[in-house]
Records
---
Amino acid sequence: MSTTTPARQALLRERNLAIVARTVVDADEPLSRADVAALTGMTRATVSTLVDRLLAARLVAELPPAMPVGRGRPAVPLVAAARTIVGLGLEVNVDYLGGRAIDLTGSVVAELLERDDLHASDPTAILTRLGRLARRIVEQTERAGMRVAGARLALPGLVDVRTSVLKVAPNLGWAGVELLPALGLPQNVPVGVANEAKLAALAQVWAVRGERKKRPTFLYVSGDVGVGAAIVVDDEIFHGQHGWSGEIGHLTIDPAGPRCRCGSTGCLERYAGKEALVSAVGLDVDAPDELIADRLAHADEPARVALNSAGAALGQAIADAVNLLDIDHVLLGGSYALIADLLAPAIEAELAVRVLGAPWAPVTVAAAPVADHAALTGGALAVLRDVIDNPARLIEQQG
Amino acid sequence: MSTTTPARQALLRERNLAIVARTVVDADEPLSRADVAALTGMTRATVSTLVDRLLAARLVAELPPAMPVGRGRPAVPLVAAARTIVGLGLEVNVDYLGGRAIDLTGSVVAELLERDDLHASDPTAILTRLGRLARRIVEQTERAGMRVAGARLALPGLVDVRTSVLKVAPNLGWAGVELLPALGLPQNVPVGVANEAKLAALAQVWAVRGERKKRPTFLYVSGDVGVGAAIVVDDEIFHGQHGWSGEIGHLTIDPAGPRCRCGSTGCLERYAGKEALVSAVGLDVDAPDELIADRLAHADEPARVALNSAGAALGQAIADAVNLLDIDHVLLGGSYALIADLLAPAIEAELAVRVLGAPWAPVTVAAAPVADHAALTGGALAVLRDVIDNPARLIEQQG
DNA sequence: CCGTTTTTGTACTTCCAATGAACTTATTTC
DNA sequence: GAAATAAGTTCATTGGAAGTACAAAAACGG
């Protein structure tokens, strides 16, 4: 029995407010109120009143009238407001922790990164440290007159998005961690948590949003020590029932294969994880991605073998995902971003053979556009998207 | 750029109309207008006017007032209207073709089935035959004063839901078939097409809807000559970009495995398809499911081996799906429904080992409740759900 | 048996957001 | 300068839900 809430008048206003906000913020160039009216199908009168509300909430700003071209009253250009409302992305990963604040124009307005080896670290200590770092960013941005609408914490593991509990993060050595208390962020900054790959995928959404006009649908596959994925359908992350969808690293490549740290056998991670790749070129897992990519590119025989085996395994796993999901675009991120060109041929060869629908809709494989700490960016953008999708909530908080 | 349509007043009415319709139709027992108001949060006045509209559209009916219990003015019981609006489910499969009309109460009001071996049949001839059959059902129901709101055609293959083209159905031997022209249904009966497993899954949604109060989320795995699946999230089928999601039968179990008819190697179908199962008990693929199940249940050694190997392969494939999707409920349908108990142990053993989230959210495996031509039922129900979700469309068609 | 209580369903007024038309404003063109 | 044109605003109108009051129909209580 779906206890859907009835539609009242306020719903109209909220929805239309969100539509106007999205139209202005997503636009490639400044729009006039009349442009917005034409794009959305609303009347100019309606747009005007809604824009007034967005101006008051500082979601949207008026630019000084540009030199008027053509006749008629010159338009007042509307753009996403810069340095007013920001989202905060946070991340703890094996080699660093950090935070990044981004405003509605997509610009980074504050950022703090601390490189560190966090293997087998103490969760409470690290989260406390991240909390301090986050509060520094919050204070800094608030001093500059901005408002932090919320935060998202990215972690490389199984995160229960509803209870904000990290079930397990093998590569951090964390398990069963209550995430929010140790962070200790102020009350007015609501924090959500999510898997690292999923938030990184959101950064890709923002990046490819401009290129194609449709709402993007793709599979984001992120390589690191583990291999994670995010399923993006029409712009939205598919989280699953608890928030731990996308565990492509533990698809079975060969049931008779080597034992995985997860307890299963023949998992993708064992063939295409960072450990498998670096050992072939005589490096350590902690080696920088650029170095690994360089070594792999100038491949001798063992490197080529490792690349092919990783590519074939990735191809098999991605083929499984595509057969299940019917998603025909794949982005390779994380450590894979730099070696996407080296992996793609082997992946595509597998896809061509194993994907049932391939003859009618070939699957494309490409490097993810955002590589640099994509989860931080994605986390911040996730917050901002919530704001854009429901400006009314923010407005009533502002009073 | 999402060209979202602006919200007008009419949207309120349509949405609330749909909410009232859904509340009445989904209820386990008759509801009064006041009950609906209490359940939805609308006022009794609003509910009254909306119910009037639904009564006029014959989506909802008033029962004669039952013997009044308790004091106060006796309630007028509202129920889903019987034998007024019907949905039509159609199917062509390897062993039969048929149609089934179902009304808003979920009762079958008309049904025609023709058993036949349709391997390597002629698409145009068969579709023309199905069209005649469908028109007989339409005429019969219309003579009885009902209205056929639409039809859904289920097919065992890759169906492009947008263009209504069947790309390929290996077990029928069909490829590249324009489905709608040959059917030749009247203009006022819009026909949609979908994969057989997906529509069958919708029948399961309807069946389990009552048990648990939430909107069901599950993976439906349907065994036959091929193995198909449907991903159901919050009541909705996940179709993918073209409509050919759920091809679990072609997940790779072992890349070094036997060649599949699809061109790949080691597909699940080769281990858990009907052919693999029947050959172990000395039967033909055309043998009735009951006989196959009976033979497998009284298993000698080769049968037990086949069951275990099929179960393990299924378990591995389902584990892949669960790791990707984070869906923790699996229903076994089609030929599997009768042997679910025999398969479940092997499947669950694999899931326990291979699903990363299993320690925190165990995956349950059960037989699908609807077995008898579930795709017909699901197709009919899909039409009815469209009606319930948007009663306004039907009303304006009725004038 | 009749008034009181209680609940259902309806009538009518109010409220609110979008619409559409008229109007103001600011610029180009002639 | 006047006309043309386009942007933005004002205001009466419209449509649908909310709220209130009220009529209808039954049980209860004396």
Note: Chain B touches chain A through 72 residues (CB under 8 Å).
---
Amino acid sequence: MHSVTIRDVAALAGVSTATASRVLSGHPATSPDARRKVVDAATELGFRPNAQARSLRMTRTDTIGVLVSDVRNPFFAEIAHTVAQSAKDAGMATLLCDANESIDQQDRSLDLLLSQRVDGMIVTPQGDGSGSLRQILTLGLPVVFVDRTIDGVDVPSVTSDNRTGIEDAVRHLVDLGHRRIGYVAGPQETSTGRERLAAFREAVERHSLDDAPELVYQGDFQAASGAAGGRALLDLAEPPTAVLAADSLMTFGLLMVCQERAVRIGTDLSVIGYDDIDAFRLVDPPLTVIAHDPGRMGTLAVEMIRALLAGQPVTSAVLTTSLVERGSTGPTRRNS
Amino acid sequence: MHSVTIRDVAALAGVSTATASRVLSGHPATSPDARRKVVDAATELGFRPNAQARSLRMTRTDTIGVLVSDVRNPFFAEIAHTVAQSAKDAGMATLLCDANESIDQQDRSLDLLLSQRVDGMIVTPQGDGSGSLRQILTLGLPVVFVDRTIDGVDVPSVTSDNRTGIEDAVRHLVDLGHRRIGYVAGPQETSTGRERLAAFREAVERHSLDDAPELVYQGDFQAASGAAGGRALLDLAEPPTAVLAADSLMTFGLLMVCQERAVRIGTDLSVIGYDDIDAFRLVDPPLTVIAHDPGRMGTLAVEMIRALLAGQPVTSAVLTTSLVERGSTGPTRRNS
DNA sequence: ACTGTCCGTGTAATCGATTCCATGGAATCG
DNA sequence: CGATTCCATGGAATCGATTACACGGACAGT
């Protein structure tokens, strides 16, 4: 499979490789005659420039690396999709990797992206920034964090306001009369896991709600841990009357358990999910959720990377979060 | 940001670049002394080989391109995820692109992957294979189709048995007494769209069911068209008593409309969805679906690409499909 | 002791596209 | 009409890693 090089094009067009290159990259100093011959030759041979050779010379790949924790999570899939679309619109390609929610695989993917010499990276990070991430940052490669951040690491980021989302959710439950609220937390190796849990604890304190340690189940953002958390909370001697989960996959797990046990959501137990996934509108009853905007996160992240690449200063953005009230939350049964 | 090259490593280690390269790529003819010095120098400098330069020389990138129609579709997200994982296990990287269900973007993505000089591609194709796809195939680049194929194009593929899935679904509905079944079809530019529709039509004929043209709504595999199809079918003078949708996103749309109109699924209307998404277990009632296995498709596709790269012959695989009966299908109301 | 292997190493060519520099011809100006 | 500018063009260097080839030294066999 010998591929067509610019030499072949130049030879067929009867010009030098320099001229061929100039024509093909739109350099102004080319004659109409040469332009025509080179373009004809290129299309006839089906010439496709070798991106390796080009970026080796240019020290630029016009490619940004995207690392999400798990594409199977609809929230991250949406981010990945919009990032890919916006990048394409800006004339850049994207290399998408999936860390499978593992710090080890995160490091391997970062190494891969680094040796592919991406011009910048958009990352949903985890861990303490000690591994390959540190190296990348000392290298000065433009990086933007999305959804998550890392403490003490000064990287521009686009996140959502975890605090008010949780606060609104708890207030909503309190207004409905709930005093005993369970929480399925995300992993504490992630900033979102930590911030959401902290916000939950503060809200519990502010409203003087039941504050038993067993009301918080420590999950890992995967569906299975949401199910485990659901079981643990429902099996308590004094189970909560409402439950919050810290991401969409754990919310799924939680709902599965409720279905398994025929717990009537909205009456037996109020449930608030995280992320406004389409499917949450279809469950019965439709789920009250803390909504934020993955699409906007993705487009903003690309804008920020482009600004960084252009040498412009960027400031981190924090998007707002809103509570979407549907049927899965209702007044406490035990209360009445 | 001047990156560390193998020259820097060689200089620090006090050897030539050739020796440094040999050590780093595990060539046997190296002395223990040189090995130690080079490895030390490389780690000290944080050397990371430039993949561009390497693959330019080696004419191999150890990277496979993956093109799915839309990562937001959970079915394709799962394929992308398992492909990435299996490829990683095999020591290969993956470049993931998203065609956004558009033939135009499919061609652009293929061009991108081609200039990245991927060693092979795994594609969920659409269209007639006339654009960039033809060029890639005449180039002899190893390609494997997943889920979908293209008529008259001889490429190994891993698909699922669309026919029996639909047949089982229709038989199940017939057994429940349904005689008037609606169908929300996928785009006829895709093989899955065509095969499933053909299978549906044949099943309708075999069972001598109502065969009005308006019972088939032509959708495009996106959620919005599922909703439009749902409305069209429900608005018929004589609406169907059961509906099938040809993929998961359209099934979502269909369910949304049912919810909007308070159609009681399983009693007012039986619904069968396509793809066994977790969320379909949670809707009320749990959805009867035609299930197939995206994870297995992904791993098989990687195995096939590896075989092709090794010059071994491969034969296409067709995976089985099964009907998972849940609560969304029930006996006809009008029948009784 | 002499010749033939074998092994570790260095020099330099190579992959394909871009780009600096030099060149020659045409166009412009005094 | 001669000098100067401008522009299209080609030759050759370059990016960083790999590897064919050559070379020198060690070692074994006769």
Note: The radius of gyration of chain A is 26 Å.
